[in-house]
Every structure is written in C-alpha cells, then in structure tokens.
C-alpha cells in the first residue's frame, strides 16, 4: 500500500512540475523539444513501478508464493491430523464392538451377537469411558414353528419370546459388566430377529 501511495505522490509531483515548466517556457521552436523531454520524463516516472516490480518484485513474488504454500501445507497437516484422530476414534470404537462380540461368542456360543457401544474417547490421554452398551442377541438354534390359525376372528398381536435368551440375559449382563468394568445399568440386551 505504501508503494502505491509513494507512486501516486511522485506522479502528481511530476505532473505539477511538468505543467509549471511548460507555463514558464517561451513560445518558440524549442517548446516542442521541451515537451518531448518532459513527456519522456513522465513516461519514465510512470514505468518506474513496473521496473521495480520486475526487478525486486520477482523476489517478493517468490517469497509470497513460498509463504502461501507453507501456510496451505500447515493447514492441510492440521486437517489431516484432525481427520486421523477422528478416524482413530471410529476405528477404536469399531474394534471395541468387535472384541465385545468375540468375547460374547466365546462364552455364549449358542447365540449370535451384535454390539453397539457408545463411548467417549480421549486420544491424547489414551482413555475411554463407556456410556452405554447395546447387545443384540440371536439364538442360533432352530425355533419351533408356532401354530398358525387361518381365518380366525381375532388377530393376535402377541409374539412368543425365546425363553432361553431371556434366561441368559442376566448372565450376559453380568459377564459384560465384569469384563468391561462398567455398571449393569449401562448394558441393554435386545432380541435380534
């Protein structure tokens, strides 16, 4: 900004000086040569910032490009680190759910499990706290066929439950509470169809 201000001041000063010289010069055959010299000086003053940019500006331009590329690189590194941390949190949560499924399958092999864990993860201190564990349980055994009544006057909305899953629910809850070191009220067991 100061360079532009200096250029404008120099240009205005030269225009005033050239006008003053033209006013005090005599009206004879030398006046056209004087106008030519003054015009050449004015053109030189107007071209001087362009020459300055070409000579010094190349260095300034390359410095600005380097500064900009470093700034972009630093910003992209910060973004990559944030994305890595978020990705690490998701990966940790997925691994925790997978391990929970494997532990349950080892101890209760007559069932299939799918876990969903809600937890807070701090990657800087490498700690986590589990807020809630949802376990979906499916019995692997073949279920009995229920009696089907066609054209009955009543529609039954009652669904028979798998008694074995209900009996094992407390065992599963106790096992998870002990293994994950959390309270039983954070564990929810659901029947999977």
Automatic annotation (TrEMBL):
Q: Which InterPro entries does this UniProt record tie to the protein?
A: Spore_III_AF
> Keywords in UniProt for this one?
Membrane, Transmembrane, Transmembrane helix
Q: Which residues cross the membrane?
A: 6-24, 36-54
Q: Which Pfam families match?
A: Spore_III_AF (PF09581)
Annotated protein name in UniProt = Stage III sporulation protein AF
């Amino acid at each position: 900004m100061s360079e532009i201000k200096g250029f404008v001041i120099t240009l205005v000063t030269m225009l005033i000086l050239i006008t003053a010289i033209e006013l005090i010069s005599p009206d004879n055959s030398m006046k056209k040569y004087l106008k030519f010299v003054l015009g050449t000086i004015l053109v030189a003053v107007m071209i001087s910032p362009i020459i300055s940019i070409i000579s010094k500006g190349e260095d300034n331009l390359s410095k600005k490009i380097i500064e900009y590329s470093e700034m972009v690189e630093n910003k992209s590194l910060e973004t990559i680190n944030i994305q890595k941390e978020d990705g690490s949190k998701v990966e940790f949560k997925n691994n925790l759910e997978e391990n929970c499924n494997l532990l349950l399958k080892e101890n209760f092999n007559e069932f299939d499990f799918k876990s969903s864990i809600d937890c807070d993860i701090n990657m800087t201190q490498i700690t986590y706290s589990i807020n809630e564990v949802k376990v979906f349980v499916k019995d692997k055994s073949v279920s009995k066929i229920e009696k089907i009544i066609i054209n009955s006057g009543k529609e039954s909305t009652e669904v028979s439950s798998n008694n074995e899953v209900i009996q094992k629910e407390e065992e599963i809850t106790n096992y998870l509470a002990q293994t994950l070191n959390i309270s039983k009220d954070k564990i929810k067991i659901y029947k999977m169809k």
